[in-house]
């Protein structure tokens, strides 16, 4: 998730005009998202419900299907927007917005650390 946070930070700099848009970096951001969409749901097996240093909500396991569905939607949105992200700044802004709208609801619902 640290990689997702770093990618989102970089994307926000492009979207806000704080850094010049770079198509290769934009595609790399979406690659990080695609990888996370597939990997993150596997990081919460049933035997990880308790113990360790976690801020994950019990809802992850209570609504495992919903949790996995949220990541499936994130994955679908990443796939649907990846090409546009690498075209130009306007395309990136739209694609970035379409994908990152998924983030807040999952963090709020499942209390996954940001």
Stretches where pLDDT is under 50 for at least 5 consecutive residues are none
The span between the termini is 8 Å
Q: Secondary-structure element sequence?
A: HHHHH
Shape: elongated
CATH third-tier fold name: Four Helix Bundle (Hemerythrin (Met), subunit A)
Give the percentage of residues in beta strands.
under 5%
- Given the structure, what is the number of helices? 5
Question: What's the level 1 CATH class?
Answer: Mainly Alpha
**Mean of residue pLDDT values:** 90
Fraction of residues in helix: over 70%
Number of domains: 1
User: What structural category do the secondary elements indicate?
Assistant: mainly alpha
CATH architecture: Up-down Bundle
Number of extended strands:
0
**Main beta sheet, described?**
none
Looking at CATH, the homologous superfamily is: Cytochrome c/b562
Rg, alpha carbons:
15 Å
Write a structural description.
The protein has 114 residues and is an all-alpha fold. The chain has a single domain, classed as Four Helix Bundle (Hemerythrin (Met), subunit A), CATH 1.20.120.10. Helix content is 70%, strand content 0%. It has five helices and no strands. Helix 1 runs antiparallel to helix 2, helix 1 crosses helix 5 and helix 4 runs antiparallel to helix 5. The chain is elongated. The model has no long low-confidence stretch (mean pLDDT 90).
